[in-house]
Amino acid sequence: LGGQVGVGDHMNVASGVRVGGGSAVTQSLDKAGDYTGSPAMPAFGWRRILSAQKKLPELLKKIK
């Protein structure tokens, strides 16, 4: 677990799980892998969300 990771009560964290700093584990992580975000999700998905967020202002201008 990275720094400042919060883990809720009664959560199971499987062996081989790595959680990035500042993440919030709100449900059990039963599969080994890298997780990050709030709530914690697979790191690959989290990185895609961050990438898409950068494009939102441009997209909103097009919609208006």
Structural commentary:
By secondary structure, this protein is an alpha/beta fold. The protein has one helix spanning 43-63, and strands at residues 6-7, 17-19, 24-25, 33-36, 41-42. The strands form 2 sheets. The protein has a 3-stranded mixed beta sheet with strand order 2-4-5. The N and C termini lie far apart (42 Å). The mean pLDDT is 97.
- The number of helical runs is 1
C-alpha end-to-end distance: 42 Å
Instruction: Report the principal-axis shape.
Output: elongated
Order of helices and strands: EEEEEH
The helicity comes to 25-40%
Mean pLDDT: 97
Radius of gyration: 15 Å
Strand order of the largest sheet: 2-4-5
Strand content: 15-25%
Broad structural category: alpha/beta
The strand count comes to 5
Q: Can you describe this structure in just a few lines?
A:
By secondary structure, the protein is α/β, with parallel strands linked by helices. The protein is built from one helix and five strands.
Question: Which key features would you list for this structure?
Answer:
single chain, 64 residues, 1 helix, 5 strands, 33% helix
